[in-house]
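Record type: monomer structure entry
Structure origin: computed from sequence
Chain ID: A
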Amino acid sequence: MKITQVLGGFHALVPCKVNLALNVLGRRSDGFHELETVMMAVGLCDELTFRPDSSGAFRLQVDFEDCAQLTPDDPAWDVPSDSRNLVVKAFTAIALELGDSNLGGEILLRKSIPSMAGLGGGSADAAAAILLGALGSVGKGFLWDKHFSVCQRIAAKLGSDVNFFLEGHTALDSWVAYCQGRGEKITPIDASPDCWLVLVHPPVGCSTKEVFCRLQIAEKGQRRVVDVIESLQTNHIERVAAAMFNDLESPASQVTPFIERSRNWIDRYDHLGQCMSGSGSARFCLCDSHEQAEKIANGVRLNGARAYAVRPWIQPSLHSQLSALWLSEA
């Protein structure tokens, strides 16, 4: 994410993610599934603005001004603004963890990342909320080792993808990571992919629970996450594209036929390779030029879907951003 100060508070520009590989290893005793996945942040972004006060209450407004529904039943912008929203849960959790019962404020969430898409929009927003909440409470007193470890701990409790948006930064300022457990154990991959992507989201969503209920572990393929990682490290985008896979694609196809329809829409055009993200319903393909990405995105939109031409997210680490933020005020 990108953190800046605004009048009376803080602002975060928050990217979404795609899964370049997703391997489901099995069901755990706690009911979750053990995963290994490679996530990459890309430049389709939500925005979160927090203006703290001492009211002890968080008031969330969700702005969908630029978010049209494609059909009357399109669930892309079915995002609550009450305590069910992960943003509110994140702010509440960080205030409780820091022992700041007076922390409250106005929160504005501008949505661009569709929900029920497998793009991690809710998790990304929650990660931003955790960090902005901590900044709203301690401000320049933010101690990286102390307070960031608190942020990490809360992120792991809130959702499987939340930690990636806090910890996925690489030495090359990209956000690419190998993630394990439920997705909360993060190991950045030193890679800076040079490519374009097209994100395609049909007018339906996928329930993560429904998708996992249809997963048959015994029927999984034998494709390897390590092949994607090694291809990323050598910046061989064609090999990355050829190695991409997602164990959840087959069960997601049982939830909605749009998984396969979206695949066919993309395959009408030249691209390097495509895959489903997360538990769906969004897909993406890799391209070697902006022109090709825009051509695919424009063509796919004619089928009544959303399509975005985006680049991998490049941004300094959160530690560097906060250091620069306080330095600029000195």
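Annotation 1: The radius of gyration is 19 Å.
Annotation 2: The domain at 2-188+314-329 is CATH 3.30.230.10 (Ribosomal Protein S5; domain 2).
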